[in-house]
Amino acid sequence: MTQLQSVSSPSIHSEDRAHEADHPTSPVVKFGIEQPLKLDCGIDLAPFQIAYQTYGELNADRSNAILICHALTLDQHVANVHPLTGKAGWWEIMVGPGRPLDTDRYFIICSNVIGGCMGSTGPASTNPATGKAWGLDFPIITIPDMVRAQAMLLDRLGIQTLLCVIGGSMGGMQVLQWTAAYPERVFSALPVACSTRHSAQNIAFHELGRQAVMADPDWHHGRYFERSTHPHRGLAVARMAGHITYLSDAALHRKFGRRMQDRELPTFSFDADFQVESYLRYQGSSFVERFDANSYLYLTRAMDYFDIAADHDGVLAEAFRGIKTRFCVVSFTSDWLFPTSESRALVHALNASSARVSFAEIETDRGHDAFLLDVPEFFDISRAFLESAGKSRGLDGTGG
What we know:
Elements: H1 2-6, H2 14-22, E1 28-31, E2 37-38, E3 44-45, E4 48-55, E5 65-69, E6 95-96, E7 101-102, E8 107-111, E9 126-127, E10 132-133, H3 143-157, E11 164-168, H4 170-181, E12 188-192, H5 200-215, H6 232-246, H7 249-255, H8 275-290, H9 293-305, E13 326-332, H10 340-352, E14 356-362, H11 376-392
Parallel strand pairs: 5-8, 5-11, 6-7, 11-12, 12-13, 13-14
Antiparallel strand pairs: 1-4, 2-3, 4-8, 9-10
Helix pairs in contact: 3-4, 5-6, 5-9, 6-8
C-alpha cells in the first residue's frame, strides 16, 4: 500500500482548489438571478458564473471566433500556464501563432464547463444560499446545459456566430450539441474522437470511477470541504481506471511492456513492481491535485446522459436536418473508448440529413488521447479544414 497512500498527499491544498472554484485567475462572466441558466433537470441555476480564456484577436466583423470545448478532466487553460499545476496548457501543441488553431488568424475561446471546478459554477463553488460549497446540492447538469451556458457567455462577449466549434471526447459531444441546438451560430464544426451518445461500456467505466470516489471515507457524502478533507484515494483510483481507457494496448506495451520499476526482481508484495503500475499511480496522484472529486461525479454523469438522437425519436439524422454547418469528423483507429464505428454512424446521419461533411480516420496506435498528442496528420487535417472554412467565410490571411 505504500505507493497508493502517496496519492493521498497532494502538494496543492484543498483551499487552493476551493479558491480557484470561486475566484478563478482567468476572466469570468457573472450572471445574476435575472439571467438564470435553465437546466435540463428543470432547475433554474442562478446566480452562476463562467470562467474562460481567450487567445488572439477578434476581428472587426467578429467572424474569426473559434470555440474550443474541453474534455472531461481538462479546463479553459488551453495555451497558458495552469494556475494550480504550473504546467503548460493542455493544447499548446494545437493553439498558438502558426499552429493549426493559429492565433494570428483566429480568436480562440475556451470556457470551463458548467459543473467544472476551475471557475465556472459547479459543486466546488460556494452556494450563495448556504455560504458553503454546493457539494451534492448542486443540480445534475447535462451536455446541453454546458452548451447553453457557453452560448450565454458568447452573447455576453458580443459574438453571435462562430467560425468553428472544435473539441475532442466530451468536448466533441459539446460540438455536436452546438450544431444541433444552435445551427445558425456555427459555420463549421470539428468533432473529434467522440460519439452522439455514450455507450453502455463507457457508462460502466464511469460508474466504476464514481463508486471509487464515493467509497472513499474522506468523501463524506460530498461534504469534504466542510471536513477539510478530499477523497484523494477514490479520485485517484477513478482517474487510473479512466486513464486506461484513454490509451491503447499497443501504446501501453510500447511505453512499458512488462518492465520493472527501479528493480530487477519482483518484491512479492503489492508495491508498484511494474513501470505501468507506477505510471498509473502518478496519473492518479497528479490528477487529484488539480481536480475536484464532486466535479468528476457530475461531469461523468453529464456524458452518460448524452444522447443527441433522444429528442428526435431516436432518429439521429433528424437532429441535423436542414443544417448548413460544415463538418469534419475525426476518429483514431486505436480509440476503443469512442471507436471509429461511432464516428461513421455520425457521418451516415449527417449524409442522410444532406449536411456537408468530411471524415478522417487517422491510423495511430496512441488510443483515444491521440487528439492531445503530436499526431501530424490530425494537425494537417485540422489546419486545412479551418483554412477552408475561413476562406469560405471571407477571412483573409490575417484574420481580418
